[in-house]
Amino acid sequence: MKVYLAGPDVFLPDAAAMGAAKKRLCARYGLEGVFPADPHPDEVIDGALWYAIYRRNEAHMRGCDALVANLTPFRGPSADPGTVYELGFMRALGRKVMGYTNDAVDFTDRTLGLMAAPARRNAAGRWVDDAGMALENHGLADNLMIEGGIRAAGGLLVRRQVPPDARWSDLTGFEACLKALAG
């Protein structure tokens, strides 16, 4: 089974090493990991690099049977938007999707903690931001569409709280996803 390894790991200073580590774990479970930065045999860079990267990643996903997404909050309270797109893309293709986060704090609490202006409760008792817009509050790891898509696909979302210095290197949740896929 080929598994697309979605996540902001491509932005790490040691992205290639992380990709290799994840691929080794995949192999341990009889799976083939495909890292977004891996070359694709049909890849052609003819124009903007960003668009070539998009086309490569989409081609990788189309060639995979499943996706494991690193949903650890990235540059804000939520998962990397590119990773979320990839998860939704694979869900729409009917593929198995799994995810893990190394920040187990609820999405609402993370959002409240990062807001520039204090949140308040509206007349209905819902948390709202300084523009009066409601905050999602379902006790989930991230936006309900992310966790809902994983559940609807029969997948697994692993929530773990790891020390800050291991936020991008701890692969325990990733490995739990692989075990479930190989199961």
In short:
The chain has one domain (2-104, 141-182): Rossmann fold. It is built from six helices and seven strands, in the order βαβαβαβαββαβα. It has helices at 15-28, 49-62, 81-92, 107-114, 144-152, 172-182, and strands spanning 2-6, 32-34, 66-70, 96-101, 120-121, 127-128, 157-159.
What is the fold's blueprint, element by element?
Elements: E1 2-6, H1 15-28, E2 32-34, H2 49-62, E3 66-70, H3 81-92, E4 96-101, H4 107-114, E5 120-121, E6 127-128, H5 144-152, E7 157-159, H6 172-182
Parallel strand pairs: 1-2, 1-3, 3-4, 4-7
Antiparallel strand pairs: 5-6
Summarize the structure in words.
It holds the Pfam family Nuc_deoxyrib_tr. This is Nucleoside 2-deoxyribosyltransferase. The protein is built from six helices and seven strands; from the N terminus they run βαβαβαβαββαβα. It is an alpha/beta fold. The protein has a single domain, classed as Rossmann fold, CATH 3.40.50.450. The protein is globular and about 55 Å long. It starts with a strand and ends with a helix.
**Biggest β-sheet strands, sense, barrel:** 5 strands, parallel
What number of structural domains do the residues give?
1
Radius of gyration: 17 Å
Mean pLDDT: 95
Protein name: Nucleoside 2-deoxyribosyltransferase
Organism: Falsiroseomonas oleicola
Can you tag this structure with a few keywords?
183 residues, alpha/beta, Rossmann fold, 7 strands, 14% strand, globular, 2'-dNMP_N-hydrolase, Nucleoside 2-deoxyribosyltransferase, Nucleoside_deoxyribTrfase
